[in-house]
Each structure stands twice: as structure tokens, then as C-alpha cells.
Amino acid sequence: MRLIKFYNENTVRVRLDTVEDLWSIQRIIFKDDIVSGKSERRFKANEDDKSDRKDIFVTIRVERTEFDRDALRLRVFGVIVGGTPQEYIQLRSHHTINAPPHYELEITKQEWSDYLVRVIKDAVSDTRRPRLGIIVLDEEKALSASLLGYGVKFGREIYSGLSKRMSQKDFKIQQDKFYLDIIKEAASMEAGTVIIASPGFTKDSVRDYIANNPKLRPEKDIIFEPVSNAERSGVYEIIKSKRIEGLLKRERIRREFIIMEEFLKGLGAGTSRHGVDAVRSGMDEYTISTIIVNDSVLGESGIQDLLREAERRGIRIEVFNSIDEVGEQLHAFNDIGAINSG
Question: For the whole model, what pTM was predicted?
């Protein structure tokens, strides 16, 4: 994401460069916000004429948003409150802005809270960081995953096709094909670094295969790590592993895991609380140091009031991705929690 300009205290213009940017900006567009961007609208000069699509720059008052993962676009639904050319604009009619990657969008709010500005700044920072790829594997299969700005995106599973009933020669041929498929998968990932991990010696066999076939080595950093299994839980285990803390220290999802672990420990110790009423009570008692909240509830007026008061009191606010594992955990605690200062 590129922050083009803050026109005043209320309006920001951004360029959404990636699919992750679409997800990031959707988190902070709320009902009744004013959003402007280029679009198209059907227009008929006369009743009997065939309608044509006309290019417009339209401003709408937001009713809702939708992140369409299949079409790779953000859809912003609302009512037209302005735009140009005026002859193609019908005020108070409904319209949808479809924002794909490489799209510029203006957002106007009555107030930009610091935590909302931080979401934008984090997205801008994320465009400059290398992405991380992960492949967990064992003798039967491999599973790839990418760590993106909006969380973990799981890729395809690659099956080895190995069988103990094979002859030694056929086993070796099939095994080499499996290793080659893994290398090709690593090479195709949009990541500067790929971690290849396994619970046994499979990762070492892949490393040896690459060493013996240096021309096949992907043009990126390959790191080999142990992991307990080749399932999705193995991917999350890698993300939380201290062995690669240096690689992941800038990753939002790792920060979420660490904060969530602190929150869960605090529940047992009585230093954490969850739910709007409990969090507000903790604020009134001046015992809260951090609030964690899912992005799915940021648009609720009660949540916004609470977070504005938290900012006024200097309380740290961490926004979680509601569709990731950590966000799903927080959903079980009413989508908002707090960690006490002691």
C-alpha cells in the first residue's frame, strides 16, 4: 500500500497495490464513512436508447464492504453523495465501487483514531518487507503456505506417491520426483525466504538433493527446520518457533500469537479479561495495559467508543485478523479482550 496524502484531518488517499492491501483497507472502512474512487455507471441519454457504461469518479456514503477473494477485489457498497461528470451521477442512488489491486481510493471519516492510522501505516510498511514461504513435509506429502499481510494462505498439498512395495529403483525415481516437486513449489512461491521443515529426516534428504543438484536450487534463501508434523498445525508451529524469531519478528501474525499467549495465561492468573463490559470495567479500574480486538467488530459503535476512550488513556490497542487462527481464538472471547498491567 502507498499512502498518497492526508488531505486534512479527515481524508486520506491511498493506492492499494496488492490483494493484502484490499483486505487491510476493508478492516477500517465503516458504515457511514465517505469513500471516493473511479468507477463505471450505466447511462441512457433517452429512454429508448441503449445504455452505455460511462467512466465516473464517484463519492458514496458506505453501507457495507465485501472482500471478494475469488475476484481479487474489494467491493464498497453505498449511496451516491457526489461525483463527476455530474450528468452521469444520480444522487441518492445505490452504487458499488469495485477496487482491484493498483487502485486509488479516498476515505473520509469524522475522526481518524490512532489505531486506524496504524493499520494503514503497517500496510505501507508491509509492502517493503520480504514475504515468507513455508513448506512442511514428511515421507507421504508436503504442504505449502505463505505468510501474507492478511495472515496465512495455505497452498496445495503434494503427495509423494511412495510405497514400500516399490522396487528400490522405482522408489528412488519416485522419491527424486517428490523432491523435485517440492523444489519447484519453493521456487514458485512469492517469497524471498522459504522454510522447509519436517518431523524426521525428510528435510535433510531434500537439502542433500539440492546440494547434489545445485542447478535446481531456487534463487532465494532456503532454511531447513524441524517441525512436529506436516499439517496446518505444523505451519503455525513454525510461525511461533523461536528458532526463526529473527525472520518473523516483523510479521504481524507472530506478534498476534505472542500477545494471545500472554492473554490466555492472564485468564488463568486473573490478569486478563474479555468482553466489552469487562474491558470497560478494567479501564475504569486503570489496570489495563493492552486491548486486543478483532477487525470484524471495529465498525461497531460500542467498540469504537471504547477504543477512543482507550486511546485517550494511552492504552495500547492491537487489531487482530478475525479469519486467522488467533482471531478465531479471540472470537470465542467475544472478539475483544484486555491484558492487565498487574
Answer: 0.78
Provide the grid cell at 294: 478483532
Cell 492491537 -> residue? 318
Q: Tens digit of pLDDT for each residue in 118-177?
A: 889 888 887 766 678 999 999 999 999 998 776 788 999 999 999 999 999 999 999 999
Distance CA 184, CA 201 (A): 20
The answer for residues whose C-beta is within 8 angstroms of residue 15's C-beta and 6 or more apart is: 1, 2, 4, 102, 103, 104
CATH class of the domain defined by 252-340: alpha beta
Helix (H, G, I), strand (E, B) or coil at 296: helix
> Which residues partner with 73 through β-bridges?
68
- Least trusted range by pLDDT, from 95-99, 170-174, 203-207, 215-219: 215-219
- Cα-atom radius of gyration of the chain, to the nearest Å? 24
Name, in order, each residue with C-beta under 8 angstroms of 259's C-beta and a sequence gap of 6 or more. 290, 292, 318, 339
Question: Residue 73 corresponds to which cell in the numbers above?
Answer: 477485489
The grid coordinates of residue 281 equal: 470495567
- At the fourth CATH level, which superfamily is domain 2-126? Pelota, domain A (2.30.30.870)
pLDDT of residue 119: 87
Homologous superfamily of 132-248: eRF1 domain 2 (3.30.420.60)
